[in-house]
Amino acid sequence: MSRVRVHNFSISLDGFATGEGQSADAPFGHAGHRLVGWMKATRFWHELGVVEPGEETGSAGVDNAFAERFGPGIGAEIMGANKFGPPGWQDDPQWRGWWGENPPFHTPTYVLTHRPRPALAMDGGTTFHFLDATPQDALAVAREGARGQDVRIGGGPGTVRQFLAAGLVDHLHAVQVPILLGRGVRLWDGLEGLEQHYRVEAVSSPGGVVHLTFSR
Amino acid sequence: MSRVRVHNFSISLDGFATGEGQSADAPFGHAGHRLVGWMKATRFWHELGVVEPGEETGSAGVDNAFAERFGPGIGAEIMGANKFGPPGWQDDPQWRGWWGENPPFHTPTYVLTHRPRPALAMDGGTTFHFLDATPQDALAVAREGARGQDVRIGGGPGTVRQFLAAGLVDHLHAVQVPILLGRGVRLWDGLEGLEQHYRVEAVSSPGGVVHLTFSR
């Protein structure tokens, strides 16, 4: 059976996975880029090609080891509407996601929204499909799209939390960043006792973050 | 200048320092003893004498190294009313704290309450003083009692948070335990940007917890 995985999911010390005030200019709201700084410093990020040539190549230590697990074995991604675009993107028929013409997913990618639209084929193997479905039903569709490979739940926090609450996630990799955001959307709300269903590990990195894994 | 320190302050992954439903039978509410299990496994705890003779002596690794910092250099403790007793202890003139006749503080210990009562001298050097005061004023009194040594803020979470928000804490040692409590009293609420005033470190322990230190 293919597994359901979450990778590189950053949260603040106080548990927020995104800040307040998300917009086209601020995908993470007042959090800015502080939650993803650890990943931008890795070789993984540099090899995604999102970095200008000539910049540093990035670290290859523990942060990178975790970061690189993002892609291998993944055959599809599911993301929530709030990850695909800023508030109101559903009203913009031209919106094609945050990531330009070659998004970093390279698989079928299922966007959960109450207002589906026709599929969007991008460069590099990513096709966005738009689904109005429960987590269970969306997962069944994504598993077909993944052709036996694993399905990644890409976020945002509300979507990850829904899949966790429904018992659908086999592997969660959350990265705790040493900042206090104070406000935004929390990952852990309503998940009392979640650890009882998983083996939980925490490892601190010289980069200052803590990698938390829940696996079963 | 004497410093203000917090030690061995356990929180869940979702940030709760105590559970819901605190009572005389359940000092941490539904959290039970899960938040303090890491400390009970240390040599520090065994040497406090709270363990039956003949039991294991406890670990002497990183968890113990942090735990042992609780006492040295401390000349006084400040605690909130919710740490001193279960809800309603103010109505019980016989209540002498949770800790028996020889509490583990061994210094003047200032209990913040809106209903002060006469001081209580216990065995082993602990005297409980009851103060209706702001954090700043309580700290001034405790510093006198500490005679040049440091002052420990002993909790609960509301009290630690108040002292943090007022900028009064020089060293915070919080211990993140890999459980999700879901409900209770959070440590981090309302502390956006706290990390900017501190050097923050996180270290994971083989025991499964993460030691977070905020120091300045």
Description of the molecule:
2 copies of one chain form a homodimer. In chain A, the strands form 2 sheets. A 9-stranded mixed sheet of chain A has the order 5-6-4-3-7-1-8-11-10. A two-stranded antiparallel sheet of chain A has the order 2-9. The model of chain A has no long low-confidence stretch (mean pLDDT 95). With 216 residues, chain A is an alpha/beta fold. Chain A has a single domain, classed as Dihydrofolate Reductase, subunit A. The radius of gyration of chain A is 17 Å and the shape is globular. Chain A has 6 helices and 11 strands. At the A-B interface, strand 10 of A face strand 10 of B.
